[in-house]
Amino acid sequence: MNTSDNTLSSTLLQRAVDEFAKLPGIGRKTALRLVLHLLKLDTEAVDNFAQSLTVLRHDVHYCKVCHNISDDDVCSICSNPMRDATQVCVVENFQDVMAIEATTQYHGLYHVLGGVISPMDGITPSDLEIESLVERVRRGDVAEVILALSSTMEGDTTNFYIYRRLQDFADVKLTTLARGISINDELQYTDEVTLGRSIVNRIPFSL
């Protein structure tokens, strides 16, 4: 069956395949396989699957403190009194929070930028949650900002920009991950042991 053309026997099947194929990393053959798998499930299971996506899209929050994905206005990490509120780990996205949490080596809070500075992609500092990070530091509760961005050109550019914005806060320590992470590696794909050691052995940020 040639799934690149509209040759499927059902218009409903074709529409479902078209929607799945819009997802990143999902080609039309994989989309067809996923849709056919759903057709093998009972109706209740498929309804639950569809409902979970609908609820996710309509009801998901972004933490008003750290901008992490959350069920409530303040995420479970920021609202946890056992976390060290004097440490803020700056990451690019939600996946990086998951990666660091999986190491069990970090017990502070996070700040999710929502990306990194990338002029080639039209992403400027104003597109990211950098001003809200500066405001968190200005309030005086933060003793250390950990720059945990990927060791790419864009990550390094963002690190430098944040450094320039925070350099007037003399009482705040600015650190970065130890270089156990290879150049051009994205944080979320680094193995847990290496990432955990990089957090524990973090070093002062330097230009």
Report a brief summary of the structure.
It is built from 7 helices and 7 strands. The chain has about 210 residues and is an alpha/beta fold.
What does it look like?
With 207 residues, the protein is an alpha/beta fold. It folds into 2 domains: 11-59, RecR Domain 1 (Helicase, Ruva Protein, domain 3); 81-204, Dna Topoisomerase Vi A Subunit, Chain: A, domain 2 (3-Layer(aba) Sandwich). Helices cover 39% and strands 13% of the residues. The chain has 7 helices and 7 strands; from the N terminus they run αααβββαβαβαβαβ. The chain has a 5-stranded mixed beta sheet with strand order 4-3-5-6-7. Strands 1-2 form a two-stranded antiparallel ribbon. The termini are far apart.
Q: What spatial form do the alpha-carbon principal axes imply?
A: elongated
Rg over CA atoms, rounded to whole Å, is 21 Å
For the record, the count of structural domains works out to 2
CATH topology of the largest domain: Dna Topoisomerase Vi A Subunit, Chain: A, domain 2
- Residue share in β-strands: 5-15%
Helical content class: 25-40%
- What is the average per-residue confidence, as pLDDT, rounded to a whole number? 89
Parts with pLDDT < 50 across at least 5 consecutive residues: none
Q: Which class of the largest domain in CATH terms?
A: Alpha Beta
Report strand order across the widest sheet: 4-3-5-6-7
In CATH, the architecture of the largest domain is: 3-Layer(aba) Sandwich
Report the strand count: 7
Give the terminus-to-terminus CA distance.
Answer: 56 Å
